[in-house]
Design brief:
Layout: E1 3-10, E2 30-38, E3 42-50
Antiparallel strand pairs: 1-2, 2-3
Amino acid sequence: MANIYVTGEVASNTFPTVNPVQPFFNGSNDILHCEARSNRQEILIYSTYFGSWGDDQAKAIAVGC
């Protein structure tokens, strides 16, 4: 099964974090990065915020195999 990776920008701390690297929200916008597995049940492996006190953006993601 392949994992699913999602990254983007969030403007609030309402997205749930799971095994976070940065569990808290900083600044006006932070990057949100998630990894999930789908094998008949969706399992969120991790979701975390990345960001500074400013406006942070994620425009792309690359995953090595």
